[in-house]
Design a protein that fits this description.
Elements: E1 4-9, E2 12-18, H1 24-35, E3 42-48, E4 52-59, E5 63-64, E6 85-88, E7 101-104, E8 124-130, H2 132-139, E9 143-146, E10 149-153, E11 158-164
Antiparallel strand pairs: 1-2, 1-11, 2-8, 3-4, 3-11, 4-5, 4-7, 6-7, 6-8, 9-10
Amino acid sequence: MNPTVVMTTSAGTITIELYGDKAPITVKNFLGYVDDKFYDGTIFHRVISNFMVQGGGFLPGMSQKKTKANIKNESTNGLSNKVGTLAMARTSVPDSASSQFFINLVDNEFLDRAKSQDGVGYCVFGKVTEGMDVVNKIKAVKTGTKAGHENVPLQDVTIQSVVRQ
């Protein structure tokens, strides 16, 4: 059975099923951060209402947390960046994901390996099973530019805790 985590945010609670069978490296990495309480107190630092909400790397004030080593991109797992799925954020370097993740707000198949511009794509590793109403609350927040970053919520949306269920 796939592991489940409960993410408590300042906007409400989100339950997430992790696809350990399809993305074992990514899920192990994510759960390592969960077990270390790394995500506790971080913010959703990038919100684009017709695209995705991203978190897992910044504290309030936009200070970036130090992460563990980057992981291998598992975008060959056949999972698609559909509404409600979680995927790993990365730079333009394919194997650069560490702690940051995003929740797809719409079907973003252009991020899938087969359709991505770089031919690599973004690894889907989980799906929101409860709390999409909370995700939709987050997507509706007002955003602006903070510390040189665009699409940052003007009022922090905090991840208070993420725990295994």
